[in-house]
Amino acid sequence: MNTILAIILVFVGCCSNVVFLELLVREFPGCGNIVTFAQFAFIALEGFIFHTNFGRKKPAIPIRNYVIMVTMFFTVSVINNYALNFSISMPLHMIFRSGSLIANMVLGIIILKKRYTRGKYVSIAFVSLGICICTIMSAKQVNVDQETTEEQGFYAFLRWLLGICMLTFALLMSARMGIFQETLYKQYGKHSKEALFYNHCLPLPGFLLLASNIYSHSILFSQSAAVHVPVIEKAVPVMWIYLLMNVITQYVCIRGVFTLTTECASLTVTLVVTLRKFVSLIFSILYFQNPFTAGHWLGTGLVFVGTLLYTEVWASVRSALRKEESKRE
To answer: What DSSP line would sit under 31-85, residue for residue?
Structure first.
């Protein structure tokens, strides 16, 4: 029952989160910092009350290790959200972030000296090719979407290219953080709730560096169209409602994934998260009518097929079917 509930939380929370994020970004493309700050503050407050018991519970992993992890996590979160300010469409953003397998494999080979099977390399080739196709298709649309002069179009392309570089850096940094986290868990044991709290609490002072941007967007949010909220019987700026819903759905999504990791095998978690990304992508394309060509569909298909090949879903399904047949015999 917990597994089914966790899967529902992942799909409902994560897919809804993408919807509210896109509603925010479409109105104010540079609002990534205020969104990231709100998410971090909410999750840190929840962890401070329910996990650390108002700071009375001591961490199992030394704080100095969390400082290193938090620096990487904060950087990745801010850059991923800020990249949306550089003409990166939401579908491309989701597809690009699905390339985490590539970064994990590359850094695993370089840092951990890991070796993989031929099938793993083939699956990564699928994912890489898919991301390249989607990126090229999106690059062609940068200048097409706006009637601009050649010079303006060139600067728009450079701005988009900077966004791609930011996503690439965040992808590699996220993979490095995953390896660091893996080594910590081997040494101190798994403490997912604790890591979730410190990853969101310790970076909060870092947002002081982004205070002016956060403040300016809070003013813009307050100036947005007001919507009557029946519960409080008051009119509230719609952007604040979108932000609140984004924060809540982000929390539901994270809790769902956390519950899933405690209830299921890593293969099941990967499969559920991959399918969730695919559903979010389809919803974003259909509901928001984001431009998506045949090339985008081809690239997307390669990314998700490569991901499923990497996780050896087909082999697991065949193995399960064989066991069922042997039981019947």
So the answer is: THHHHHHHHHHHHHHHHHHHTSTTTTSPPSS-HHHHHHHHHHHHHHHHHHHHGGG
